[in-house]
Amino acid sequence: MAQIIFVSNPSNKAKQSLFAAHLALVLAEQSKTALIAAQNEKLEMFLAKRHHFNLKNSQNLPVPAYFNYQRNILNQTADFSFVVLDVNSFDLLKQTDILLSFADNPKAANELSDVKSALSSALWNAKKERGTAGKNAFKHFVIPSLKLDAPALEKLQKSAKLSGYILTPPFDSNSAYQQSFETGITFLDKNLSAFKKDFLEADFFARRDLKKLLEFIWADK
Q1: Helix 41-57 vs helix 175-183: angle between axes, to the nearest 10 degrees?
Q2: pTM for the model
Q3: What domains can you pick out in the chain, each with its CATH number?
């Protein structure tokens, strides 16, 4: 059965999609992985460019399977090892194993840390539904931005246990993520000899920071 990972960043949908795509690439390198998004042409083009590059150059860059989000879509992904969700509907939370929530600004941090917020209520209801179905509660990781101010970060730290999430080290994507969408080639590919000449400082930091974040998440999984 697939492990389902839900990526959520309501305040920055573009960042949500960029992160979801790169997470899916990391997973697809070792495991059969699907990426589900809601009619996202940029994501489709990004993956199509990678597929075309592989065909043209006899390469084997990881390319996760892409599905447009629709009702009961998870029925089509049962034989995958991982499914990454880049959607804005919380309807799939009750089927989620890992939730990654970005806290890019004080408003997002407040919604996540306030146990009475609409978001916290939705998360709690999803956990109850999973419990009723005999499933374990999903693991919830909150990813604060490096730019998040000290009061908002402190609030997230204080409410983590009560709200039931794990606070990761601060993280932000950089320009290397956006460039990936434009070319189809990402900083994750630039360890290959064909791309080493194009390896930039931004690629180094993007790869390092993503690796550190995912190591933290998998260690706590």
Answers
A1: 60
A2: 0.93
A3: 3-220 (3.40.50.300)
